[in-house]
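WARN  no MSA supplied for this record, continuing single-sequence
INFO  ligand: beta-D-glucopyranose
INFO  echoing inputs
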Amino acid sequence: MSPVPKPHESVEPLVASLPTPADLPDYARKTLEAIAPGFKLTDDRLREITHSFLHDFELGLSKYGEPMAMIPTYVTGVPNGKETGTFLALDLGGTNLRVCEVKLLGNHKFELRQQKYKVSDTLKTGEAVALFNYMADSVDAFLTERASIDPNQQNEDLLLGFTFSFPVEQTALARGELLTWTKGFSAKNAVGHDVGQLLQDAFDRRHMHVKCVAIVNDTVGTLMTRAYTGGDCLLGSIFGTGTNGAYVEDISRIPKLAGHPAVANGGKMVINCEWGAFNNTAGLRTVLPSTPFDNKLDRESINVRKQAFEKFISGMYQGEILRNILLTLVDHQPPILFKGESSATLNKHYGLDTAVMSDVENAQTLADVRTAVSAGLGLPLESVSDLDAWIVRWAAEMVATRAAKLSGAAVAAILVQTRHARLQGYGDPAEPIKTPGVMHVGVDGSMVEFYPHFEERLRSALRALVGEEAEKATKIGMAKDGSGVGAALCALQAMKQLTA
Ligand code: BGC
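INFO  complex generated
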């Protein structure tokens, strides 16, 4: 194990938690010190971002067509844990497609059978009809091979909740048009189409006795699942390949729904924020601190100037931001990293997986960091010096800390929007703050589940934004299997509406 180098005072502003190597050459130190401020988020900047978030919430709740879509889901309440029934769930949203059979037991518990199916790049980027056919085929295969229910033994159609984790402008629980693809999907002839109908058509072409009764965003599924298993939930959020949040809003505060027959009786509705699109209008009101590394990522992406917030914080993009930084350091004259040597992983667009950053940050000693860097970047161990290892760790920590703090701003915005907390430094809100009690936030996704220090960093931002009392009252809990269970709970709600 190589010894951890001694601290070096002059590089204090750099963030890496391992002491700075004393032998960091001057030109390297200066370059790192020039990069670091671009990633720094002061408390004031975070407050400004959260304030801007709240502004975009208002806009999205008032009008259709806003970048932060604030989508009414037609889900009018959260479960209490007593719900029962068996439903199918289909979940498309990231790397895999999942088909599940969910049995809600009515005592806050559930049983789940599931099967994952790979979604190839060809399916993600080909014709939508092929993607939806593949989904129907997967449900068919699941019913034959895994499910306990036999569709041929049933008199009625099996009810399915469709967790489709992309921005869908819903017009009813089971109806909604895809606004845009995100997370690397670009299948043709889907945007502008009703995705519930596309799926149903695929089932019908196969004469399957399955009825899609609800389209569910994964954040909504997370919110519903957390409420079902834990009894209460204020926000369901995903910090994974993509990012987003869903919360319960008073219908009276959703002006764009005024006059809609579905809300004649007032009450509450779950809103899918689509917060990944926050600050899409960059250039007009840029509040996110874009660095040249972010700009490069955006320019080279398949959705330029879209999902602006998501590109700062989600798992799909963080590895790519890091790759952009590392390549700049490799190409620097004189080289700052790996003596100017690159690797196939470093040279490939999206070649650096965010999981590598996670390994680098998880390593406890500089020797372990070296091993993680060498394995993750595909470089021989002897090409990675202690100094290289330290610099990669420094950069990973910087990118991931910014991501987690921005995630904290999104959570804070919901606490303020729902009048559970006050944004520090912005005066008293018009309405009184509810006595906090415990505020439950259900979360899911690879960043929050696996990335080291993610919650701790998110919380440090939350404290700066809403104060220590509200931060402490916020209980963040994983809602495992949220997509499947949430889809089942929405299918149940749809069934009740159908039979009412
Ligand atoms: C999608 C959201 C989704 C989030 C997390 C985003 O890219 O637009 O609908 O909830 O990813 O999966």
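The chain has two domains: 1-73+229-480, 80-216.
INFO  checksum written, moving to next record
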